[in-house]
Write a structure and sequence with these properties.
There is one protein chain. By secondary structure, the protein is an alpha/beta fold. It is 38% helix and 12% strand. Strand 5 (143-145) and strand 6 (148-152) form a beta hairpin. The longest helix has 26 residues, at 279-304. Residues 186-191, 193-212, 216-228 and 306-312 have low confidence and may be disordered.
């Protein structure tokens, strides 16, 4: 019985995949195939390369200042974030190398920006496949692989059950982070004191565009990723909830046509798309969600396994 694990997209909520994997392995349910979309591709890649513990240690220790230090802003590459620092970070964690050399068969989902088609990345450089799968439009610039510009796989397949099945999994466990996403607040609270002001090499966001009028450059000096005064949504608030709406609809549609054997649903609605500094809470909820699903997984595996005897 070959077990496939499909890890879904969800931004910072994807840290919960770490807790899911830990709980499954502790219970003796070890996946034979790991597939991921966006953050699912990142965590799945860390697991397949044997670096899950290192990723967890980094995630739990990182505060919002560490997270923002990884944002290399560039307006000339098709997104706000170029992503070079993220690729270097993956290399420092040794979540890299050739996918074909991994001990566990692995696949990441991306989207062809030109055709809109779903792209399965099952060979080549692991870090580059992850970078393509997390290239959320409007935030990360697209990645070129084999002559195709690729963006986030969540645009077409947020929970990659189909890839798991195609790779040969007999029993598929899916982790869906897009359940009940809608309804989150869109403005900052008074106790949210994070300074998410974007800067480029000491200047403000638009200083790199010489033709921008001085009045706009002055506004950009206080440009923030989230609402500036709690009264109005910020840039990422609008973008994140728009993505949530899209992924909610796509996830429901894809899972209705391609249902897994068991679905794990971490309760991470309170963790925003970019709240990467809340890893500990997400990981704990991922573990709890997997433990809630273990009876279903064990029952499902027992029903699926069939032992042939000569009397049959």
């Amino acid at each position: 019985m070959r077990i496939g694990l499909a890890l879904g997209s969800g931004g910072a909520r994807g840290w919960s995949h770490i807790g899911v994997l830990e709980a499954l392995v502790d219970a003796g349910v070890k996946p034979d195939f790991v597939c991921g979309t966006s953050m699912g591709a990142l965590v799945g890649g860390a697991y397949a390369s044997g670096r899950l513990a290192d990723l967890k240690a980094w995630a739990v220790a990182a505060d919002w200042k560490v997270v923002t230090s990884m944002i290399d802003v560039s307006l000339l590459t098709g997104g706000l974030v170029e992503g070079v620092r993220i690729v270097n970070w993956l290399g420092s964690l040794k979540v890299a190398g050739d996918i074909d050399a991994l001990d566990i068969p692995y696949g990441a989902v991306a989207t062809d920006l030109t055709t809109g088609r779903e792209v399965w990345l099952q060979s080549g450089a692991l870090d580059k496949a992850i970078r393509a799968s997390i290239a959320l439009p409007g935030i990360f610039s697209p990645t070129e692989i084999d002559g195709r510009w690729l963006v986030d796989g969540g645009l077409v397949n947020p929970v990659p059950v189909s890839l798991c099945r195609a790779m040969g999994a007999d029993f598929i466990i899916a982790v869906n982070l897009n359940e009940d996403l809608l309804g989150r607040r869109l403005t900052r609270t008074e106790n949210d004191t994070r300074d998410w002001t974007l800067s480029i090499k000491g200047g403000n966001l638009l200083d790199t565009i010489k033709s921008v009028p001085a009045s706009l450059r002055a506004q950009a000096s206080s440009f923030r990723l989230f609402g500036t005064n709690g009264a109005t949504p910020g840039y990422f608030d609008v973008l994140a909830n728009s993505i949530n709406i899209m992924q909610d609809q796509i996830t429901r549609s894809r899972l209705a046509g391609e249902p897994p054997h068991v679905q794990i649903l971490p309760r991470v609605i309170d963790i925003g798309l970019m709240d990467f500094h809340h890893a500990k809470a997400a990981i704990n909820e991922g573990r709890a969600a997997a433990e809630r699903a273990l009876p279903l997984i064990e029952a499902g595996l027992a029903k699926t396994v069939h032992v042939y005897t000569p009397s049959q």
